[in-house]
Design a protein that fits this description.
about 25% strand, 14-stranded mixed beta sheet, alpha+beta, five-stranded antiparallel beta sheet, 12 helices, about 35% helix
Length: about 725
């Protein structure tokens, strides 16, 4: 089925193509976003390059003594965490809460007897204000404390501290107490581990505190004593008389400075350098060649990758809002939020071990190649850009700088650009849409007026009934209306010629027809044989039929002229039909007539002579097609403000779709049995013409039983 698309719909479809502009704008901004991402990568890489340049060739900040082939192990190689506040030496864990989750666990590695009491301890190191703090939580069901009269420090549970001095010399200290409380460590001679000490190291202080599961050891020592090597060893004894150590736990080999584990103390100098770079709004890390964190600063949730005082921040700080900003905030922003990705500050990006970064990007940087990469957070709420740059000392890579930023800055700038662009586009589209709609409505209105005026020029019979008024506007539609006006004028002239043609033909043909008829009459009076007489009679019949046709043509023209001077009066339609039916019974004695009417009078405004002619035409057709043994039925009934007259006869049915054509002039659709009669199809045409002049409606159709034809006339009733 064909779909009708009006001009308005076509213009709407055409104007909807403007909606592609926001899509093109979005694609443009998206493409610009990719360029901004590349720019952010280069900027962040420049940040790491600048920090690395400040750290190049500063060997004092990095532990260059560790071989690249050395195996750095957690627990063996110790990391000193930065403490947010100083530790109070009281044997409690409260001061260590910020880093308590990073404790290292150790179990006994050497045992001389069957172990019924496995010894373990947890160790954590921290640094604050020039001191190294250590906390040990020892699990020992049967701790042995040295008696006060026992000079040998190794005759009970004790801890050995071994470290390298800043000059690289091995230094060993022992912690052995006779009771809970304050202690100082003792220093051993260089080549003797278990002799009676003679020197007390007052700068190494701590607290020994017995607990329900063993004891806790909390101590501190000045960082100035410590080089880059450190190790701890806990020795326990089963009883005081035993000469052998029962169980031994060590972080590394304490007998040789090379066997000690390396200690990494975050550099305060690097830390201050990174803090000076905090205006870059990036999270910064400096790691050594084993990816151990030397210093870090910044919060990834604040690392948006945009400069301070950006347009978003300025807009957020505005206290006054104009009308447009209020509309944008209350109406447009929620709509944009449906399809724009908003920065989500609630993302999670927690380092599993903040002391050691095991990342592929750092591996590439530590090989001497600066690189960048994008990665998604664990909860996929944000993308993080990372850039790493190597740090060189004497041509060798000793560490790397890692900088990280989120894509929130880019998202904010992109969303702001899209919103401004969409605001402008939508404003333009609204203005263009209003103008286009106004223009479209004007065009459609003019075309509809042209259509309505054209349709009103013709009645149902195709006759011109009005005067066409052309548009005076000098455009295409105006040209079209003037062309239609000219066309209708010429059609009117032709229609007038056609309407007068029947009268002219009737007038012009009557004289030659009369001559032929008189000649035939004279010829018939002359003596002739039977064969000649037959042709004379046939010619006379033809002249009679031709004369009948001319009479009908003249009658139609005369009635049309008479109707133009119609003089209507109030008549009782009931009485008129009764009188006509009685006359038809006398005129057509071989046919029966039946009438069904209401008892009340039905008044209409009409010319009774023309109404009688109307009924004559209809009854003549009914009699012609109705069998003589079937009655022709008249039925008149009032209905609301109209009177409905129906004339029904049984007989041949109308061909479907030809009902309206029967009322046209010179149209005759007759069965073959009636084709010998002379008919121009003017009977129903005249009947229709009379009905139109009386504001009545004439219809013809097959009856509901499909046994004949019913003609229905609807007259307007005069209200009492």
């Amino acid at each position: 089925m064909a779909i009708k698309v009006g001009l308005r719909a076509k213009l709407l479809i055409l104007s909807s193509l403007f909606l592609l502009l926001p899509w093109f704008a979005y694609q443009f901004v998206t493409e610009m976003e990719s360029f901004l991402k590349s720019g952010q990568q280069q900027t962040l890489l420049g940040t790491t390059s600048g920090i690395a340049a400040a750290l190049h060739e500063r060997s004092s900040l990095f532990n260059t003594d560790i071989n690249n082939n050395d195996n750095i192990k957690q627990g063996h190689d110790l990391y000193v965490y930065n403490l947010e506040q100083p530790i109070i030496l009281d044997g409690e864990e409260d001061d260590w809460q910020s880093i308590i989750s990073f404790k290292n666990h150790y179990s006994a590695t050497t045992s001389t007897t069957k172990v019924n009491n496995p010894v373990q301890f947890e160790q954590i190191l921290g640094k604050h204000n020039g001191y190294l703090y250590a906390f040990f939580k020892v699990k020992n069901q049967h701790p042995l404390i040295r008696s006060i009269d026992t000079p040998q420090l190794n005759k009970a549970d004790h801890m050995i501290i071994a470290m390298s001095s800043p000059q690289g010399k091995l230094m060993r200290y022992i912690v052995s107490v006779t009771s809970d409380g304050w202690f100082n460590a003792y220093r051993y001679p260089e080549h003797s581990l278990y002799t009676t000490p003679t020197n007390r190291e007052k700068s190494i202080q701590g607290i020994w505190k017995t607990t329900s599961t063993g004891y806790d050891i909390e101590l501190r020592l000045p960082l100035e004593l410590l080089g880059n090597k450190l190790g701890f060893q806990l020795n326990t004894r089963a009883n005081i008389n035993s000469n052998k150590i029962d169980q031994q736990i060590m972080t590394s080999n304490l007998l040789d400075v090379k066997g000690l584990g390396s200690v990494l103390i975050p550099s305060p100098e690097i830390k201050s350098l990174l803090q000076a770079m905090s205006h870059t709004s990036s999270r910064l890390w400096v790691v050594d060649k084993f990816q151990r964190v030397i210093a870090n600063t910044g919060d990834i949730h604040q690392a948006k990758g945009i400069w301070p005082g950006s347009l978003n921040d300025i807009n957020q700080n505005k206290q006054e809002h104009n009308l447009w900003e209020t509309i944008q905030e209350q109406l447009l922003s929620p709509i944009y939020g449906l399809f724009l990705d908003k920065p989500d500050p609630s993302f999670a990006d927690i380092k599993i071990n903040p002391t050691h970064l095991n990342e592929t990007l750092l591996t590439q940087a530590l090989s001497g190649i600066a690189a960048t990469q994008w990665r998604s957070t664990q909860d996929h709420k944000a993308s993080i850009l990372s850039a790493a740059h190597p740090i060189f000392v004497n041509g060798k890579v000793v560490g790397a700088v890692l900088a990280e930023e989120t894509n929130h800055g880019l998202l904010s700038l992109r969303n702001e650009a899209l919103q401004k662009l969409f605001n402008v586009l939508f404003t333009v589209l609204i203005v263009v849409g209003i103008l286009l709609f106004g223009f479209m409505s004007t065009v459609v209105k003019r075309i509809r007026h042209l259509r309505d005026q054209s349709e009103s020029m013709l009645d149902q019979n195709g006759r011109l009934t009005g005067h066409f008024v052309a548009s005076g506007q000098q455009d295409e539609i105006g040209d079209l209306s003037r062309s239609m006006e000219n066309m209708i004028k010429r059609l009117g002239q032709y229609h007038q010629y056609v309407e007068q043609l029947s009268a002219r033909l009737s007038h012009e043909l009557r004289t030659p027809v009369a001559i032929v008829r008189s000649s035939l009459e004279n010829l018939a009076a002359l003596p002739s044989d039977l064969e000649q007489q037959k042709y004379v009679i046939r010619s006379q019949q033809g002249i009679q039929r031709l004369n009948k046709i001319l009479t009908s043509m003249s009658e139609a023209s005369r009635i049309e002229q008479s109707l133009s001077h119609l003089d209507k009066q109030n008549i009782d339609l009931n009485e008129l039909i009764k009188g006509c039916v009685q006359g038809y019974q006398m005129i057509y004695p071989n046919n029966a007539f039946t009438e069904h009417q209401s008892s009340a009078s039905i008044l209409i405004e009409a010319d009774p002579d023309f109404i009688v002619q109307l009924l004559d035409k209809l009854v003549h057709n009914a009699v012609e097609y109705s069998p003589q043994d079937e009655a022709i039925v008249f039925e008149l009934q009032p209905h609301h403000q109209h009177a409905i007259l129906s004339i029904s006869n049984k007989g041949p049915l109308l061909v479907e779709g030809t009902q309206q054509d029967l009322f046209q002039s010179m149209v005759s659709i007759r069965p073959e049995a009636h084709q010998h009669d002379a008919h121009l199809g003017l009977g129903l045409y005249i009947a229709k013409m009379i009905c139109d002049y009386h504001d009545a409606d004439l219809k013809i159709a097959n009856n509901t039983n499909l046994t004949g034809v019913t003609v229905t006339i609807t007259f307007p009733i005069i209200q009492h």
